[in-house]
From TrEMBL:
Organism: Dyadobacter beijingensis
One protein family per Pfam: DinB_2
InterPro entries for the chain: DinB-like (IPR024775), DinB/YfiT-like (IPR034660)
Protein name as it appears in the record: DinB-like domain-containing protein
Domain DinB-like stretches: 26-149
Gene3D superfamilies, alphabetized: dinb family like domain (1.20.120.450)
Length: 160
């Protein structure tokens, strides 16, 4: 792949992961949620906004860890990917979750930008996955659950 094409692809994948083109960003989806509603499970939905946020964090970290290291340890589905309901979450827990999502995205962006990595070659420790596929998986997975956060906010009456 020519260097200009690679740079354009990396820019597109980065923008896709950051979101905001066809939907709100995670930051926008989380903005203004009252602390006492973070753990409320809306009627007819299985998860609270906190559980969705934590699921995004856990799943994205899992994808990034898998993409970076052959020493990756497989998580157990679904138990390791979904937090249990809770009655409260502290401001510190909330902020830490968001910060880890951002840090893991930066780790993945560094992987994308590593010129020594072939973006399309299968990862030696995987079953055919490559860095481009994992980038699209992060973007797809996060956008799906960001939409669920918006639905939860609508049902709780705390969306625009």
């Amino acid at each position: 792949m020519h260097a200009d094409q690679r740079k354009k692809l990396i820019n597109e994948l980065t923008a896709l992961i950051k979101g905001g083109n066809a939907h709100v960003t995670l930051s926008e989806a989380l903005s203004g949620i009252p602390a006492d509603m973070r753990t409320t499970i809306p009627d007819n939905l299985p998860y609270s906004i906190w559980q969705l946020l934590e699921h995004i964090r856990i799943a994205q970290k899992d994808i990034v860890d898998f993409s970076i290291s052959k020493d990756y340890k497989t998580l157990v589905w679904p138990d390791d990917y979904w937090p249990q309901p809770t009655d409260s979450v502290t401001d510190e827990q909330w902020a830490d979750s968001i910060e880890e999502i951002e840090r893991d995205q930066q780790r993945f962006f560094a992987l994308l930008s590593d010129e020594g990595k072939d973006l399309f070659s299968p990862l030696a420790w995987g079953t055919g996955q490559n860095i481009v596929r994992e980038a699209m998986l992060i973007a797809d997975h996060n956008s799906y659950h960001i939409a669920e956060i918006i639905v939860a906010r609508r049902l709780l009456g705390i969306w625009k």
